[in-house]
């Protein structure tokens, strides 16, 4: 049974605001993060034609809040390397 956590949503929203300073387009990211965290998302998948963007950052913030995971599907190794740099995390 799914339920909503306002506390998780708020914390993920605030974390995304903080992380969004690295992103170029944080306008929708806060909403995505709050929505995913509020619903206790455990596995989030983002597919991108380029490097990770603010949506990926938002899902990372939500995953930190819920203890979940983010899978980022990228087209190649160059995008992977750039995504690692953008995310600023020790990612595989």
N-to-C SSE string, H for helix and E for strand = HHEHEH
In order across it, which strands form the biggest sheet?
1-2
**Spans of 5+ residues with little confidence (pLDDT < 50)?**
none
Binned strand content: 5-15%
Shape: elongated
Largest sheet entry: 2 strands, parallel
- Secondary-structure-based class equals mainly alpha
Query: In whole angstroms, how far apart are the ends?
Result: 32 Å
How many runs of DSSP E, i.e. beta strands? Answer: 2
Number of helices: 4
Q: What is the radius of gyration computed over CA atoms, rounded to a whole number of angstroms?
A: 13 Å
Task: Give a description of the structure.
With about 90 residues, the protein is mostly helical. The chain has four helices and two strands. The chain has helices at about 5-20, 30-40, 55-65, 75-85, and strands at about 45, 70-75. The protein has a two-stranded parallel ribbon with strand order 1-2. Strand 1 (about 45), helix 3 (about 55-65) and strand 2 (about 70-75) form a beta-alpha-beta unit.
List key phrases describing it.
single chain; 92 residues; mainly alpha; two-stranded parallel ribbon; 4 helices
Brief account:
With 92 residues, this protein is mostly helical. It has helices at 6-19, 29-38, 54-66, 77-87, and strands at 43-47, 69-73.
Set out the fold topology.
Elements lengths: L5 H14 L9 H10 L4 E5 L6 H13 L2 E5 L3 H11 L5
Parallel strand pairs: 1-2
């Amino acid at each position: 049974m799914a339920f909503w956590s306002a506390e998780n949503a708020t914390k993920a929203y605030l974390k995304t605001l903080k992380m969004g300073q690295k992103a170029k387009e944080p306008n929708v990211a806060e909403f995505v993060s709050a929505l995913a965290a509020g619903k206790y998302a455990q596995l989030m998948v983002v597919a991108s034609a380029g490097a990770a963007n603010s949506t990926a950052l938002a899902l990372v913030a939500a995953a930190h809040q819920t203890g979940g995971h983010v899978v980022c599907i990228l087209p190649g190794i160059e995008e992977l390397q750039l995504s690692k740099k953008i995310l600023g995390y020790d990612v595989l």
